[in-house]
Amino acid sequence: MEAWVEQAAQLTKPDRIQFCDGSDAENESILQQMLRQSDSYRLNPKTYSNCYLHRSNPSDVARTEHLTFICTPDKEDVGPTNNWMDPGGAKYKVGQLLSDSMRGRTMYVVPYIMGPANSPLSKVGVEVTDSPYVVANMRIMARIGKVATDRLGSSSDFVPGLHSLGDLDPLRRYIAHFPQEQLIWSVGSGYGGNALLGKKCFALRIASYMARKQGWMAEHMLILGLESPGGKVTYMAAAFPSACGKTNLAMMVSALEDQGYKVWTVGDDIAWMRIGADGYLHAINPEAGFFGVAPGTGMKTNPNVMRALNRNTIFTNVGLTSTDEPWWEGMGEEPPPGLITWRGEKWDTSKGAAAHPNSRYTVPAHQSPSISPQFESPEGVPISAFIFGGRRARLAPLVYEAFDWQHGVYVGATMASETTAAATGDVGITRRDPMAMLPFCGYNMADYFQHWLDMGKRIPHPPKIFHVNWFRKGADGKFLWPGYGENVRVLKWILERVEGKGHAEETPIGYVPTQNALTLDGLQLPSESLRELFRVDADDWEQDLSDTREFFAKFGGRLPAQLRDEFQGVVRRFEHSVSA
Ligand code: GTP
Ligand code: SPV
Ligand code: MN
């Protein structure tokens, strides 16, 4: 580790190097540096103890997928869905930007563990960065400092990540991954997944590459435990694209709590999974905190996280009240007088949203009242169901179940979702996002599909696979389903299916709940909304199938034959249902 840090320093030429031990005293000094060097403020100490607001550069507010590269000698190995650079070329190009980039700055060395400190599934990374904001966030999102150097010992088995803010110009921004070397280079951004290298860069892009080689899975999935009456807890993992509801589902306050159904949070974004001795797939959450979307988070939608956010939390790009408290749209309160926008301007209606749509909170996971007693379990939790989903105003019903593993892989591979503010670019455009991994798969997506198919054959008790859509809209353009805590009704049906009990009817796309199979008591849902939520429209699906055909064609001969078979199966079932 010291040798690699030395190399990084040779390249970036920092004025000083600070090795982070993760202590409270060190954190205090890092926060002081953050307050001095960036657009950052301490929030009201009475109501938000040890909380900070950070405003990022307005050109640096979300992941930049077009500037994110997988660097391998053979272009075919990254596939049609990733940006490619050859490793030598990338080292030269990005190296020029990193060269001398830390002159006049401090290089912080952050050793960290992804996963519980004592879990055999955990892995060590080392991030060097010139951003105190990044260090403060890494401290919440991972286990940093002494605990990591202790685990590493004199081993060189760690993922190095070199990060520099550079000049924050998007024209000089690259997030480059070298999977063969297990190396990450990131320059020109201080935001989220671009800069907190343990998260998307390591725990998904590099880890997905490792996982395929080593026979495990690194997925963009929340992990939750659904407690049922009697106290049994069944674990589920769900893959939804960025800003499509993972954090909210994982932390929900169940609308069926008085009937004995409660949700426990194990993870809200990433799952690392291995086949356990019991034949189940076991999942750990590699992260230690939640980097969650602020807008839309309120006491009505996610009271668990709201209760966690009043201490030890870093807010990024939210609004600021005259009493030094954070504010965002959907918090459940009217914009207060004297509100300041995420850009630091006085808010009025002409300014639009006071909080950036991708503004976020960074909060320690254990502060959530819903945190699972199994959160730090070294062997992880056994997963009984996988849930895929996305934002689809049309087409996808509220919930359906795949016929079997192979069909479930097809359902995941053909996922699509409307784009959100979590990445720069247009919002609301429907795009294919297989297993919610489009921006996060560190190798050829066709090989990733094959890996899923292979894993299914190896898992003695594979999870059942489902697809959900909380975002279907009616003719009036409004969401048909209330969402949030009411989503437990769908989880309950999934649990019943896992236990071989829930009722379903077969449709061309999978099993859909029968009329009375969902527990809907206490919900005022018009019957026509319910019908629309479950409608499988043959014309819409025909359109979707032709889009799927085009998407699959991108992978050429590398696409697994089983997925072509599944595609033909759906086509046949629709033909059959129409003629019947
Ligand atoms: P990333 O952290 O970017 O990966 O996003 P995420 O998948 O964790 O999404 P999150 O739970 O933060 O939700 C994103 C946005 O969708 C927020 O504005 C939520 O308020 C909103 N949202 C979440 N769940 C639901 C739901 O069930 N229904 C509706 N209508 N909106 C939801
Ligand atoms: C996402 O975009 O999926 C996020 C936010 O979780 S970031 O960490 O910026 O990638
Ligand atoms: Mn999230």
The termini sit apart by 66 Å
Structural class computed from helices and strand pairing: alpha/beta
Q: Bound compounds, please? A: guanosine-5'-triphosphate, sulfopyruvate, manganese (II) ion
Report on the biggest sheet.
Answer: 9 strands, mixed
- Outline, from the CA principal axes? globular
Count the beta strands: 29
Helix content: 25-40%
By DSSP (H or I, 4+ residues per run), the number of helices equals 15
Q: Tell me, rounded to a whole number, the average pLDDT.
A: 97
Written description of the protein model:
With 580 residues, the chain is α/β, with parallel strands linked by helices. Helices cover 28% and strands 23% of the residues. It contains 15 helices and 29 strands. The strands form 6 sheets. Strands 1, 4, 5, 6, 7, 8, 9, 10 and 11 form a 9-stranded mixed beta sheet that branches. Strands 12, 13, 14, 15, 16, 17, 23, 24 and 27 form a 9-stranded mixed beta sheet that branches. Helix 10 packs antiparallel against helix 11, helix 10 packs across helix 15 (561-579) and helix 14 (538-553) packs antiparallel against helix 15 (561-579). The model has no long low-confidence stretch (mean pLDDT 97).
